[in-house]
Structures are given as C-alpha cells and as structure tokens.
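Posting for a labmate who doesn't have an account.
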Amino acid sequence: MKETIRALLIDDDQGDFVVTKGLLSQIKRPKIELDWVSTFEEGHDAIAKGGYDIYFVDYFLEDRTGLDLLREAARHQLQAPVIMLTGRGSHEVDIEAMQAGAADYLIKGQIEPEDLERSIRYALDRMEAQRALRASEERHRAMFDHLPLGVYRCTPEGEFLDANPALVRILGYPDRPSLDNLYASTFYVSDEHVQVFKARLKEFGIVRGFETRLRGVDGRTIQLRNTARIHRDTEGNVSYVEGVIEDVSRERSSFASSQEAARYKALHECDHMAMLTLDLSGEVQDGNPTFLAMSGYDEENLASVEYAKLFEEEDRAEVLEEIQKLSGGAAAIRKESRNLRVKSGSICPVRTLSILIRDWDGEPNHILIVMEAKLPA
C-alpha cells in the first residue's frame, strides 16, 4: 500500500466531512489526505477526471443517491474503489450498493478508525487484484488474437465460445461467429472422425496431433492437425474444451510431392521405359534418356516438338484426338501399336500409355507418355 492515500468524500453535509476527516487522522499508516465536494455534479466530475486512490460516497446526495453516482461512474471505467456511507443501515441498500460496484458499505455513527482502515485496505487490495487480473486477461487475449495457429474454445457439448483470427483465416471465413454452426459441434474435426476424437478426449482429457480434414469456405479440402484439452473448474466439472489447429496441408503436400518426385525420378531413369512429358496442347516438354536413345533426338531439338509429328502421317489424327481427350479429363489411353518415326528417318513400332497428370487441386496439368518399343513377332 502507498505511504500516502488520496481520498475524496462526496457528501452534502460538511459535518460529516469533519467527522470523517477526524476518523482518518487516527489511522497511523498509511497517511490519508481527504478532499471534499458537496454535490452530485462535483462528485461526478471528480470521478471522471480521476486522480484519487479511493472515494467515499454518501448514499443521499440532494435529490440523487450515491448509487446513481456509482452507476454514472461506471461509464468512465472507474479506476479506484468506492466505499458507500449512509446514516441508516439497510440490508437491501447494502446488496444494491455491492451490485452497483461499491467496494464496501459503512454506516455513519458506527464507524471506528480500525473499521475504516480495514475497509480502505481491503478495497485497495481488491482493486489492485482486479487490475492485475485485467492486465493478465488483456495479455492472454492479445496472445490469443495474434497466435499464428488457430485456437478455439467450445463448451463440453460443442457449443461455440470463441475462435482466434488465425483459425478464421485458416478456414477462410469472414468472422468468428460464422464458424459457430459449422465446426464447433465437432470440435473442428471431420464428421467421420468426430466420435473417435470425442472418445479420446473423454478418456484422456487431452488429444495431441489428431489429423483430420475439413472443407474450407472456398470448397478446398484442408488437412489439419488438432490438439485439444479439457479444462475443469475447481469441483472437477468440465468447463470448456480448448484446442489448437495447425494447417498442415502444405506440409502434407510437400511430403507427397517429394515422394511423387522420387517415384517419377526412378521411372524417368529406368533403362527399359521411354517417357515423354507433354503440355496439355501436346507439345513435348522433355524426354527421358531411354526415349532419347531410342528416337535419336537430343534434349535441345526435342523440346517444343509437337508430339503428333513424332509419328507417321497415318497415326497423327488419332494421336491428336488422344491428346484432346486427355486434356478434356480422360484418365489414360493405351495404344498397342503405333509407328514412331525416329530421327534417322526409320520407323519404330511402339506401344504407348498416355496418362493425364493433375495438380494438387485436381485440375489437369500435363500429360505423361510411357512408351515401349514393340518387338517383331
């Protein structure tokens, strides 16, 4: 507690000011400096301006009450405690004063210096504790709002309580309330996983790294990693469930891409399999060493060659039709016999398997040609 406390008495009776000042002067520590105003308006202005550590407010102030003043002060986010004083004690008034935000309620004529000192000390201690709690809540809220990971809170029944901006961004929705009926009831896991997730949460109180998929507002499927835990009250009852969501779509995509690249590299370097990569219009992008050796082309003069022109004239219309079907969405087309014209001008009969390759969003991306020289019967 401070060595010197600045206090203000708001009371329309000067005699009460003299009595209160006399009581406060008997308090050895801390030293209390008391100022006085006599009207509701003066008290209202003084509270709005601040500058005092504590206020004493008389219940009766002309045609208004101290409760009216306390309620008005609440609009200014009162930063100091208020002790209500009255000449006539009443349980109803006591309760009403506390509900309005008074720190204590004392009856004039029954106040001893020790009572007044204790009331002041408790009121200031409670106010300091409330300030510390508000500061902690503000820090927690700031961390909650600025975490790069998505955070949610739901009731044990799955009713929406809160979600931070990162989770709103991950799922692509405009605001927190829009997530309410969509995901909260399932604790942000897919319908197919929700029963397993809830069972683990109930049994262990925490679920770590649970992977699931949700559909975002734009229709895309998002791979998520969900870690959730149950929070309980002092009696052991479940208060709420809090979870942290991480979007691992890119991580999964990167892992899958590296696996796909490894598989493709193994195929591309296979000695027994000729391969070509085409764009969707049918132009050759590259060929593997086996195709280059079989056809006599090199990488430089193969690039941007029209795939159909690698074959004999009678095959080209069919090849072009094949490219058109694949670009339009056909998965794969097999051809048992086709005449490839190699660089030297000779003909090489081949079998071909043409495959449409899609990107991670499922859109047609390029065409893979797998070719094998057809041995004579």
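Reply:
Got it, the structure tokens are right above this. The chain is about 40% helix and 30% strand.
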